[in-house]
Structure formats: structure tokens, C-alpha cells
Design a protein that fits this description.
single chain; mainly alpha; about 85% helix
Length: about 200
């Protein structure tokens, strides 16, 4: 039985999550892959899951998610928690914590998607700048720390993980600035067309 495009969109996040679960032993073998690939991938899967159901997910939240700020705050706290060395250790050493990691990061991605548009540019700027600063700071700390921070990962692995975090912090900041610039240009173009037609 052939799936329609809509059905594929609905099932794709679940299928990718299953693939990620199968790849977890490989992803978690090094700290760089754990922090630089698996954690962001889980957040993106949550975003994709919320996107695949359209506005239904967003319509469930307005009662408590005023201006998108509570959802963005929850997502930021979840992502910050899984950047801590002790959190990574517990996720690798205890299966139940690993399951909680996956669930919380997927929910964080869904909360980001549901809250992003409602937040507006000012709140988005606050969240992005703080998130990028936090990611860059964590990355630099991981690279410069002389001692082993995680019990399951060696010092050289945490340095590579720090490099991955720095790249993610810069990428998040650059992507958001590019999007703001594009929206600004589009707004100016529309205003120019309106002024010309009047």
C-alpha cells in the first residue's frame, strides 16, 4: 500500500526516531557524536514531529504558552540540562535516564516549533542570543578544561565535543541573523511596493 505525501510527513519523524534509537550505541560511543549529533538531532525530530501535524499541536498550547515564552523557556532549560557532563554520564550509564533524555529533547523540539512564531522577533532574539551564548560558553569550557569532566568520556573526547558545541552555537546565531535579515528585506520590499502603488 502506497503512502501519500501527507502520510509520509506524519510517519517520517517516527521512522527517523527509530533509526536514531538503533544508532544510539554508535552515537554515544564518543562525546562529540553524543553532543554534536544525537542531541541536536532529537530536538530537530521534535520540531519535525510538531510540523508534521500542522497547527494542531500549536492550538493545544495557547492557554499556558502566552507569546510562546513558556514553551521556549522549557525547551531552553531542557537543552541546557543535557549539556551538563553529569547528565551525559547518567544518560549513558542508565537506560531509564537515556529514555528520559530522548523524550525530553523531542518534547523540547515540539515546544520550540509550537512557540517560535508566537514569540515574535524580540523574544526570539532573547532566546537565540542566550542559547548561542550558552552553547559557545559550554563548548569553550569543554575545550579548555584540563580535567576529565565526564566519567564515560576521556579528555580528548570532551575537547572535540567542545568544538562541536562551538560550531553549533555559531551556526544557530548565523542562521537566525540570516532569517531576520531576509524578513527585513522582504518587509522593506513589500512596503516599497505598497508606497509605489499608492
Amino acid at each position: 500500500m502506497m503512502l501519500t505525501g501527507r502520510q509520509l510527513c506524519l510517519h517520517a519523524p517516527a521512522a527517523l526516531l527509530a533509526v536514531t534509537a538503533l544508532a544510539a550505541p554508535w552515537l554515544e560511543r564518543t562525546m562529540a557524536r553524543h553532543m554534536g549529533i544525537e542531541l541536536p538531532l532529537l530536538v530537530m525530530l521534535g520540531w519535525a514531529a510538531a510540523w508534521s501535524v500542522g497547527g494542531r499541536w500549536e492550538r493545544q498550547l495557547p492557554g499556558w504558552n502566552a507569546r510562546g515564552l513558556p514553551g521556549l523557556l522549557v525547551a531552553s532549560c531542557v537543552m541546557a540540562f543535557w549539556m551538563l557532563p553529569v547528565s551525559l554520564d547518567l544518560a549513558v550509564l542508565h537506560a531509564s535516564v537515556g529514555v528520559a533524555k530522548v523524550a525530553s529533547l523531542v518534547v523540547a523540539g515540539m515546544a520550540l516549533k509550537a512557540s517560535w512564531r508566537a514569540a515574535g522577533t524580540v523574544i526570539q532574539a532573547f532566546v537565540v542570543l542566550n542559547g548561542a551564548w550558552m552553547t559557545l560558553t559550554a563548548g569553550l569550557l569543554y575545550q579548555s578544561a584540563p580535567q576529565q569532566l565526564c566519567s564515560v568520556y576521556l579528555v580528548d573526547q570532551q575537547q572535540r565535543a567542545g568544538q562541536a558545541l562551538v560550531m553549533w552555537g555559531l551556526a544557530i546565531l548565523a542562521l537566525w541573523l540570516w532569517r531576520v535579515a531576509r524578513q527585513s528585506i522582504r518587509t522593506e520590499t513589500l512596503e516599497g511596493l505598497t508606497w509605489t502603488s499608492s
